[in-house]
Design a protein that fits this description.
The protein is an alpha+beta fold. The chain is built from two helices and ten strands; from the N terminus they run E-H-E-E-E-E-E-E-H-E-E-E. It has helices spanning 15-26, 104-114; strands at 7-11, 29-34, 50-56, 62-67, 82-85, 88-91, 97-101, 119-125, 133-137, 143-148. The protein has a four-stranded mixed beta sheet with strand order 1-4-3-2, with helices on one face. Strands 7-10-9-8 form a four-stranded mixed beta sheet, with helices on one face. Strands 5-6 form a two-stranded antiparallel sheet. Strand 9 and strand 10 (143-148) form a beta hairpin. The longest helix is centred in the N-terminal third of the chain and has 12 residues, at 15-26. Mean pLDDT is 91; it is low at 152-156.
Length: 156
C-alpha cells in the first residue's frame, strides 16, 4: 500500500496566476476547473475563480490549489510573514512548502525562477546539512524551502 501527499494551497482570487507561475518554474501539466465549470452562473462573482487546480510534473513536483469562495484581493496581503532573526526563523504562517532536489544546479534553477517578485528569507547557500539551502516567500505569499539532498547527513 502507498499514499501520496500533495500540498493544497488556498488563494484569494489568484490561484490561476499562482499555478501558471509554478508551471513556469517546475514545468508539468496544469489542470484547472472553475466554479463556473461546476454550475455557478457565468455572471456570478467568482465564477471564473479556480475551484480545482492541479499542477503535476514528471520530476515529482505536485501541487493543488483553489480560490477560497468570496475571498478576493490577492493572497500575499493576508499570508503572514516569515523572517530570520538572530539565526532563527520566525513566522506566523501555518506551513512552508519544501522542495528538495538531488543536484545544486537543479535547485538553483528553481530558486532563480521562484525568487522573481519574492522576499528572500534565507539566501540559497551551503549549510551544515545541505550543499544548498534557501528560503523565500513568493509573490503569492507562499513560503518555500529549497534544498539539495545531502549525500550523507548525520545528526550526531
Amino acid at each position: 500500500m502507498s499514499i501520496t501527499t500533495t500540498t493544497h494551497l488556498n488563494f484569494r482570487g489568484d490561484a490561476r496566476a499562482a499555478l501558471e507561475f509554478y508551471r513556469s518554474v517546475f514545468g508539468g501539466d496544469l489542470s484547472i476547473a472553475t466554479y463556473g465549470d461546476f454550475g455557478m452562473p457565468a455572471e456570478a462573482p467568482g465564477a471564473s475563480n479556480v475551484v480545482f487546480g492541479q499542477l503535476e510534473s514528471e520530476n515529482g513536483f505536485r501541487v493543488m490549489a483553489y480560490d477560497i469562495p468570496g475571498a478576493t484581493g490577492g493572497s500575499a496581503a493576508t499570508a503572514g510573514t516569515t523572517r530570520r532573526e538572530n539565526g532563527v526563523t520566525l513566522t506566523d504562517q501555518p506551513f512552508f512548502v519544501s522542495v528538495r532536489g538531488d543536484a545544486l544546479d537543479e535547485v538553483q534553477g528553481y530558486w532563480v525562477a521562484l525568487s522573481v517578485g519574492a522576499s528572500i528569507v534565507e539566501p540559497l547557500a551551503a549549510s551544515a546539512w545541505s550543499p544548498g539551502f534557501g528560503m523565500l516567500t513568493d509573490r503569492f505569499g507562499v513560503t518555500w524551502i529549497l534544498d539539495v539532498a545531502a549525500a550523507a547527513y548525520s545528526a550526531d
